[in-house]
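Everyone, describe these structure tokens:
***
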Amino acid sequence: MPTLAEFFPPAILFAGTPFEFNRVQLVRLIVIAVVLIVTCVIASRAKLVPGRAQSIVELLIEFVHGTIIQNTLGIREGRRFAPFLITIFFLILSMNLAGVVPGLNLAGTSVIGLPLLLALWTFVTYVVAGVKKHGFAGYLKHETMPPGVPKPIYLLLIPIEFLQVVLIRWASLTIRLLANMVAGHIMMVVFIGLTQGLLLSGTWLILGSPFTGALAIGIFGFEIFVAALQAFIFTMLAAVYIQMATSDEH
């Protein structure tokens, strides 16, 4: 049975130091290296009439730009934050898909460090954008005091909205991404292990292995969908938070 120990493997290098390096970091480095190499090769060979690989990358960028960035932030603000949002999307997508790649078999986002870092990066981005737009005091008022609310309600609303800005948003981004990738990994391991156990049981239980195997394949496909969906949701929420911070009205 899978346990949480899978997400905290023994050290490969520098055990017991702040620079400890284990399988999770190795997976992340491999993913980053592959993504950088592939994108650099595609960019260096870019053509007016794109090939298959270039078309896939361009379609993904157009999807993020058209579906998330322009629809949420508009053309001017979208152009400003497009590099950040596209980077977030591709990084999360590639790290998530590592969980279904044979030999890696672990999403880079299934340990809290990376989801937390991405969430805090998003937090800093929308706070800085809001402060630049409204000033420090103006941004706090903009986020915590929506217009049209009876003044006595502000006594309750201001602390709730402040807590949402400084804690709940980035914490929910972290937990949502982490929980989905951990749950997906555990489900795949359970059904693959169950299928193997039934096949090797040497009893009539072997008859159940095709069903558990089919479920394992289904979960494998579902995990690919979840990997893409979580990248989309994280990027969409990041764009929404930026829009809320930089809008003229709450």
